[in-house]
Amino acid sequence: MSTENIQSNAKASRPPLTLLLAGPRGFCAGVDRAILIVEKALEKFGAPVYVRHEIVHNRFVVEGLEAKGAVFVEELDDVPDDRPVIFSAHGVPKSVPTEAARREMIYVDATCPLVSKVHREVARHSAAGRMIVLIGHAGHPEVIGTMGQLSPDDIVLVETCDDVEKLDLPSDRPLAYATQTTLSVDETSEIIAALRERFPDIGGPKQEDICYATTNRQVAARVIAQRSDALFVIGAPNSSNSKRLVDVAKGEGCGKAMLIQRAVDIDWTLLEGAATLGLTAGASAPEVLVEEVIAACRERFEVTVEEIVTAEETVEFKLPRAVAV
Questions:
Q1: The pLDDT of residue 257 is above 60
Q2: Could you tell me if 20 and 37 lie in one domain?
Q3: Bridge-partner residues for 259, per DSSP?
Q4: Do both 238 and 304 map to the same domain?
Q5: Range of the domain at 91
Q6: How far apart are CA 149 and CA 195, in angstroms?
Q7: Over the stretch 70-93, which tens digit does the pLDDT of each residue have?
Q8: How many alpha carbons lie under 13 Å from residue 200 in its C-beta half-sphere?
Q9: Buried-state track 88-113, b at ≥16 Cβ within 10 A, e below 16
Q10: Between vectors from CA 133 to CA 110 and to CA 191, what angle results, nearest 5°?
Q11: What is the rounded average pLDDT for all residues in the chain?
Q12: Active site annotation includes 142
C-alpha cells in the first residue's frame, strides 16, 4: 500500500471533532505588561532579576522567564539588597514597597493597573471613614495585596452570601465594597446584592472592579459552552480567572468542563462520543499552549476549528518608567 493510501486510511479512521475556539482567550493586557516588565528588567539590569511571587499564575511562563535569568522568590528577605526586584501582577501589601524603599532596593511594580485601581478605591473609601468589605478568595495574592492596603480594622473579606449574613460590623461606620478583579461575574453580583440588601447605604466602586478581560473571557466561555459536549480551559490550578471559566462552562450545562495546564493533562475519555469540544484559556495562559492542545486533538480526531469571537480587545498598558525604553 502506498504512503498516500496509508495516510488517507489513518485520516479516515479518526472521528470528526468540531473545536470551538473562544475569543477572547489567553493573555490580557495586564499579563502582557507584567511579562514584558520582567524581560525589560533583565535587559536593563542583567541577570539575575528577582520576582516576588509568580509574576503571573502560569508555570510555562514562569519557567520561560527563569531560563532568561529571573529568580522567583516568596518574600523580600530572599532578595539581595543589590539586585532589582519586581512585584507580581497580582499586587502587594503596602508594607512590601515600604520595606524595599527602606532597604534602598531597586524595585519595579508590575501590579496590573486594574488591580491598582482597586487599591486606590479602597484607600479613597478608607480616607472618607468607610470600612471596606472586600469580595474575594481568601489566600489569593490579589486579595492579600488589596487587604494589605489598609489596617486589619478597616477591611473585611467575604467569599459567599453566607459570609455576608454572618458579618458583624460596627454600626457607627459607613461601608463600601470592592471586589477581586478575577471573580465570576454572576457569583459576585449575587454577593453584591446580598450586601446591598443587608446594608442599603453601602458604597461601591465608580466602575465595576471585575476587569474587562475576566468579563470578556467568561462571556466567550459561556457562548461556546452552550454548544459543546466537553470544554477545556487552559490555565493553572492557582489561577482564579481560569477556574472561574470552568465554573461558567458548567453553569451553562457543560458538565465535562475541566481545567488543564498542558495537552499532556487531557483526559481523552471525556471526548469519547463527543462531536464538539470548546477550548479557551485563562488570562495567564499563552497562545502557544492553545496551539499545543489543538495539535494534540488533531492527532486523534479530524478537527474542524471554528473561532467564536464575542469581543475585540485593544487595551494596552504603559510600562513603568523604571523599565520603559
A1: yes
A2: no
A3: 233
A4: yes
A5: 29-109
A6: 22
A7: 999 999 999 999 999 999 999 999
A8: 0
A9: bbbbbbeebbeebeeeebbbbbbbbe
A10: 100
A11: 94
A12: yes
Q: What percent of the chain has pLDDT over 70?
A: 96
pLDDT greater than 90 at residue 223: yes
Q: What is the pLDDT of residue 85?
A: 98
> Is the model's pLDDT at 177 over the cut of 60?
yes
Q: Look at residue 208 and tell me whether its pLDDT is greater than 90.
A: no
Number of independent structural domains in the chain = 3
Q: Which residues contact 57 (CB under 8 A, 6 or more apart)?
A: 235, 236, 238, 239, 240, 242, 282, 284
Say if residue 93 is in the same domain as residue 66: yes
Q: How many helices (H) and strands (E) does the chain have?
A: 11, 12
One of 142, 190, 312, 316 is an active-site residue; which one? 142
**CA 323/CA 44 separation, integer angstroms:** 7
Q: Are residues 226 and 298 in the same domain?
A: yes
Question: Edge to edge, what strands does the sheet with 175-179 contain?
Answer: 155-158, 131-135, 175-179
Q: Quote the pLDDT of residue 31.
A: 96
- The C-alpha atoms of residue 109 and residue 79 are separated, in whole angstroms, by 15
C-alpha cell read off for 231: 470544554
Domain containing 118 — which CATH number?
3.40.1010.20
- pLDDT score at 60: 96
CATH of the domain at 34: 3.40.50.11270
